[in-house]
Structure formats: structure tokens, C-alpha cells
Amino acid sequence: MKLKAIGTINSPYKVKGDSPRQGRFSEELSKITVFEEYAQGLQDIEKREHLIILYGLDRAEDYKLMVIPPGKTKEQGLFSTRAPVRPNPIALCMVKLIKVEGNVLTVKWLDALDGSPLLDIKPFLPEVDCTLK
């Protein structure tokens, strides 16, 4: 498997512990800069109100398969939680798109640390992402 960054994230969160447990708990703005060679892929992105951002947890620590989530007292399996320490340190966060300026997206609700590598952007589609049967 090959993954490479397609951009970088600039956020107000400089060190671990600065970012909110979940991005939706913050109104802070972040900027996502898509590298020029991928900028064409942003065409029509301004038509989307919400995006799913996948980014690398490049400062994550070693993972454990059993973790104690915040506010809990009992261990749970890693894959039943959203703990940031994972075998493949990839995070996802739904954001609200505020502004597009060339290859730079201004968003809110992003919980990434400043300088995190951007791996992918996908549109959030309620008709697909929220429909459970």
C-alpha cells in the first residue's frame, strides 16, 4: 500500500492536547492547502457544505489494542473507539467548508494538529453517509 500526502493542514492546534477531542466541539478555523499537482481535483468543491478530511496522525504514539476512552473506566477494544493511536495512524474528521481560495480551503471543526499531512478529501453526502437501514 502506498500513501502520500496531497497537502498539508494549518490549524491553531500546535501540540498534542491542544486539539478538541472531537472537532465538532470547536469553532476554530483551519486551512487545508492542497499541493498544486492535486489542485485541479478541487473543482466544484465549493458546492459542498461539508467534507470528510482524512489526514495522517504523524505524531501519534504506539498503539494498544485495549484502551480506556475519555470519561470511561473500563477498557475497550481499540476498534470500538475513536482513539487516535492506531495500527495505521489515519484520522478522519467531518468539517464545514467556509471558503475556497485557489488550492486553500478554510474549514471549521477540524481537530488535526498544525502541519498534519492531508491524505484525502471526500464530500460528505447525507443520502449516503447518514442512511442506515
At a glance:
The chain has 133 residues and is mainly β. The protein has one helix and eight strands.
What does this structure look like?
With 133 residues, the chain is mostly beta strands. The protein has one domain (7-124): Elongation Factor Tu (Ef-tu), domain 3, CATH 2.40.30.70. It contains one helix and eight strands. A six-stranded antiparallel beta barrel has the order 1-2-7-6-3-8. The protein has a two-stranded antiparallel ribbon with strand order 4-5. Strand 4 and strand 5 form a beta hairpin. The longest helix has 4 residues, at 126-129. The protein is globular. 20% of the residues are buried. The model has no long low-confidence stretch (mean pLDDT 90).
Provide tags for this entry.
mainly beta; Elongation Factor Tu (Ef-tu), domain 3; six-stranded antiparallel β-barrel; two-stranded antiparallel sheet; 3% helix; globular
